[in-house]
Each structure stands twice: as structure tokens, then as C-alpha cells.
Amino acid sequence: MATSPKSPFANLPAPPQAAKKPLSDTRHGITRTDDYAWFRADNWQAMFKDPSILDPEIRKHLEAENAYMEAAMGDTAELQKKLFAEMRGRIKEDDSSVPMKDGPFAYGSLFVTGGEQPHYFRTPRDGGDKQVLLDGDKEASGKDYFRLAGIDHTTDHSKGIWGYDDKGSEYFTLRVRDLTTGDDLDDVLENTAGGGVWAPDGKSFFYTLQDENHRPSKVFHHILGQNQSEDRLVYEEEDPGFFMGVGGSLLDDVIYIDIHDHETSEYRLLSTKDLFAEPKLVAEREEGVEYSMTEGGDVFYILTNEGDAKDFKIVEAPFAAPTKENWKEVVPHVPGRLIISHMAYERHLIWLQRNQGLPQIVIRDRQTGEEHAIAFDEEAYSLGLSGAAEYDSTVIRFTYSSMTTPTQLYDYDMATRERVLLKTQEVPSGHNPDDYVTRRVMAPAHDGELVPVSLLYRKDVALDGSAPCLLYGYGAYGMTIPASFSTNALSLADRGFVYAIAHIRGGKDKGFAWYENGKMENKPNTFKDFIAAADHLVKENFTSYENIIAEGGSAGGMLMGAIANMAPEKFAGIIAAVPFVDVLNTMLDDTLPLTPPEWPEWGNPIDSLEEYQWIAAYSPYDNVAAKPYPPILAISGLTDPRVTYWEPTKWVAKVRELSTGTAPILLKTNMAAGHGGKSGRFQRLEEIAFEYAFAIKVAGKA
Hints:
Blueprint: E1 23-27, E2 30-34, H1 44-49, H2 56-73, H3 77-89, E3 100-102, E4 105-110, E5 119-124, E6 131-135, H4 136-140, E7 147-153, E8 159-165, E9 172-178, E10 184-192, E11 197-198, E12 204-210, E13 216-223, E14 232-236, E15 243-248, E16 254-260, E17 265-271, E18 280-281, E19 291-296, E20 299-304, E21 313-318, E22 328-331, E23 337-344, E24 348-355, E25 358-365, E26 371-373, E27 382-387, E28 395-401, E29 408-413, E30 419-424, E31 436-444, E32 450-458, E33 469-473, H5 490-493, E34 498-502, H6 512-516, H7 524-539, E35 548-553, H8 555-566, E36 573-577, H9 583-587, H10 595-602, H11 609-618, E37 632-637, H12 646-658, E38 665-670, H13 681-698
Parallel strand pairs: 33-34, 33-35, 35-36, 36-37, 37-38
Antiparallel strand pairs: 1-2, 3-4, 4-5, 5-6, 7-8, 8-9, 9-10, 11-12, 12-13, 13-14, 15-16, 16-17, 17-18, 19-20, 20-21, 21-22, 23-24, 24-25, 25-26, 27-28, 28-29, 29-30, 31-32, 32-34
Helix pairs in contact: 3-13, 7-8
């Protein structure tokens, strides 16, 4: 168990004391009283669009918390600057992507020296001068927060839709740009989900609108030149438990309307030959059945778990009649081989799968049926598949990296199997992979399962238990955390840290069952797996309990809150970024943006007593108790629609009230940002430097 060394936090002022305003709520005959419910502003929807209207009492408290945090972290100012300089020094400032060919042009993005935002450009197809289509730094000028949603061009390459969010609230404004002149048209569309899909003639496009509860519930058709209020409603999803997106195909034949929650999906298709027709249903939603579609000329290829294909299979169906009765299996379900995504081109069907915990790209010749996988040498690595922008292409693009190998970008010819290295991530300040070790160890869980843990550390680190360790975890929504290259993590490794990623249940790191066994009633497995990872690292002398700093964000922040309650003695410190810690109250509030779509992940405590009890048993806020908590750093964003600012605010107030220890409980609220923190690439590095400074200070390595 952790000892109690002298605290690195000394001579702090008294922390803010939140007022108690008890509010009681009774569900299923169970009454709970929440002393800090008042932090949830009654006008939160409007405040996300205009933060200046935040209740003054709430603002005063958040500012007091920020002042206390600054007092606690003030002595790390120089360390933060040093960390920031290191991280920035590993980034090629004037970096450019390798343009991807599409018709007469090749499209890409770049950053300029000192710039925070991407610039989108194109060149002639086979090379030539860059034409900057969208200068993100120019558009962001004078704004505290600015996030681009990219730019999508018409089939004839004459115009582009681009979107931006300048509040951090994820309400995007869409504009239309003439790509020849660089001027924006008069069309301005507010409160969208970001992005749109052009009709083939370039005279109109489709987009999703965010409703008053911040849900993309309506698809509209916008004709250039008309007012947004005149846009035609194409489809409205009336079930608040489902999100909706709109997309297009490489052949411009169809508009996809994708309706889904975390375990069920439904597609409706609109032929681009009749833009005013009613979208046609492919397969009616069926609880627990997921599917996604890609066009393959005269057929659709559909990735689905239908028929107990837990790790997914691929079926095909006629383009003219893709309904479920016409589905024909073409890539069978293989238990333990999880198919993650798929793409179709004129001559090839390709898919990204995860087998034995490692990603693979598999390619099938559509005429001969011959298959092959792209081979790699390292025992642990990460892949990204970006495919191609042209349907008749035989060349696809993918990225490869490991925890010690910088990202490599390849073009791969699916017909000749020739692999061409286009670019290797440049680390301007220098990086020698031979100075580091990457390993994957297996931690025994409480029930006998083995939890993979990826490790990065310098070769010269003494593995005698004395090394500090930053242990990262997420474990939700089936998200797999890749063992990829991180220039930022090198700042910890170079200070003697073991940087570790726990691939815990709730992700799909070991297949779909790994996800199922970390959700709903099985959610506690996620928390126990993380603690088991810490135990194993201590047992194997990679670190010791008094040297482990845990880190997680969003749903990983829920993990941080849970392990703080379950095993505070096993962690020297905890970093909880935008932490989803008030799980029960949030899942009981169906007006919040994510609540109804999240019920399949966590449970619906409104309708079910049993599911209420599941959540109540682990919800971090509801299980704070009188015990000595380690130092905690919680980070939130005022306009965050995913994890609302009041969740970490309430949690910090309650932990500080009940903790029997003397460790500081800190809250940093970004007053001009949302879920992802600051938007610029270097602004984001400042936030990472701040988090790492906390970890280094707690570990006594500052």
C-alpha cells in the first residue's frame, strides 16, 4: 500500500467551500439528497451558446476554484513552460499532409510555423503550386476558441462546405466557399452538427441540425441561395435515444442517413437521382443489431453483427434492393476476430480487423475472391486506414506506428502489393527509438481474465519499483486505445516515468466480448481491471503504489472517480479530464444531450430499478466517502455538452468535503472551451503540459 511521503503541496490557501443547497429526488421509492445540484444552471442550453449569461454565483465559484488551482500549481510554471517547449520541439511546425488524389486535384492540409489551426489546400493532381482553400488561422483570428470542421468540395471541385464552432459547445456554423475566388457565399447555416454532403450537381447539400437539447435529430436539404428557414426537412428522428448523421458515397449515387445509438443502428438511403424522394429504409432497427454500409457499384457491402455475429461479418446486397432479406454473407463471422470497418472499391473489398489484440488490414479481390493481409514486423503496433478518394483506385493509404516508432504514411497498391513509404513523422528535436522500450504485459484480473497493458519507458530506467508511472485508462463505448506513437509521452519517459496504457474491459481491445463485459451490469469490471493493472505493475517492479499517477478523460474520468473511491491508497495522484462522474444524476436527466443515447451503455435508471441500482453502486459522485483521497486534478470545460461543467464541479466539492486526508482536490475549468479543451494545436499542448506537470509534481520529479 502507498506510504504517506511529505506532500509536494504546501502552504496552500484555504480551498473554496461550495455552498450547500440540498435538493432531494425520489425514484423507485429511493430518496437521494444532492447538496450541490445548484451548480447545474437552469439556462444551460442558452449558456452553451452565450457563456456570458452564466449565473454570477456559479461563475464566482468556478473562478475561485481556478484561483485555488493556480495557487497549488503556481510553482510548476517553469516546468510547464519546459514541457511545452519539449512537446512543441517534437512537432514539425510547418508540416503538411501528403495530398490525396481526387479528380483533377489532390487535397491536403498543412500547418504554418507558429500557426494553431490547419490550412486546407489543393494542388494539381500530379503536383504543382498549392492553392489554399481555407486558412484556419485567419478564420480563428480574434476568437478565444475556434474549431474547424474541415471542408468538403463539390463533385466539380468548384465549391466547398466548411464549418466552425467558436464557443466549444459543438454547435457548428456552416458556410459555402467559392473555391475559385476564395469568397464565401451568402449562405450561413447555424446550429448544425458540422459538415454536409453535396448533391452531385453542386447546387444543394444535406446536413444535420442540432436541436435545443444538442441532439442531431433532423436532416435538412439546403439549396444554395435560400435562407436556412426555407430548408426542406428530409428526415426527423423522433426517438431521443438515437443520434443521426448524413454521408455520401464515392460514386455520388446515394446519400446515407445513419441513425444509431451505442448498440443499434438503422440506415435510410436517398438516391441522388431524385433528391426530393422519401429516404428508403434498409433494415428496420432491431435492438442490439448494428450495421454500416459502403457502396460497391451494383451492390452494397454491409458490416453487421446480425444473426449472433458478435465480432461482425460482411454481407452484400443488390444496390437496387438492399433490404435484409437480400443480405448474402461474403466475409463470415469468426469469433475473436473483430471486424472494425470496411471500404469498397471497383476491384477490391478491404476491411480493418483486430485479431489477438492487434489490428490487420485485409484485402479481397472482388473478382477472384483471393485475400491477403498487409504484414508488419513489430509485436505491438497501431494502424489507421484512410483508403482512397476515388472508387476506381487500386491504391489505398494507411498509417503505421508503435509506441517507439513515429507514424509512417504508406500508399499500398492492392493489385501489385507494392508498399510505398510517403512520409515518416518528423521529430525536429530528435528521437532515437533505440533509447526506449515498448512492451505489452498481461495483468491478471479479479476473475482470471488477462488485461493487456502497453508500456513505454527508457532503456536506462531501473525496474526496481522506484520509477514513477502514469497509468492511463478509458474503457467505454468499445473504444480501443491504440499502442501508437506519442511525442508527448516522451516527456514523461525522459524523466524516468513508465508510461502505461491499461486496455481494460469496456473497450474492444480483445474483441466484442471485452466490450460487453465492461458495460451495463458488468461496468465494475472496467474499474477492477484498472486496479489490477496497477497491482501487476507493482508486483513486477515497474513501479510502486506511491508512484502511480492515474489518468483518464470523459468516460475515462468516470474510471478515475471510481478507482478514487475503490482504492485511493493505490494511487499517488489522479488526473480526471472532463470526468463523467455524476453518472446517476446524468442518466436520470433525459433533457441532457447524451442521456437517452447513452442508456444502452450504462442503463436506464428512469425506467428500471435494477439499472438504477447498478449505476448507484458505482457512480463516483454518489459513492464519495470519508476516506483519505490522494491529490486529484479535475479539468472541465464551461461549454462542454458531453460532460457538463457541473459534474466535475460537484464531484470536487463533495470529495473535498468528505476526504479525511490533507491532499488538495483541484478543479480547473476552461471558461472558454468545451469537451476537447482548447482548440489550437499548441494551445492543446499547454493543457497536456499542465497535466504532466501535476503528475511530475506529485511524483516528486519536478
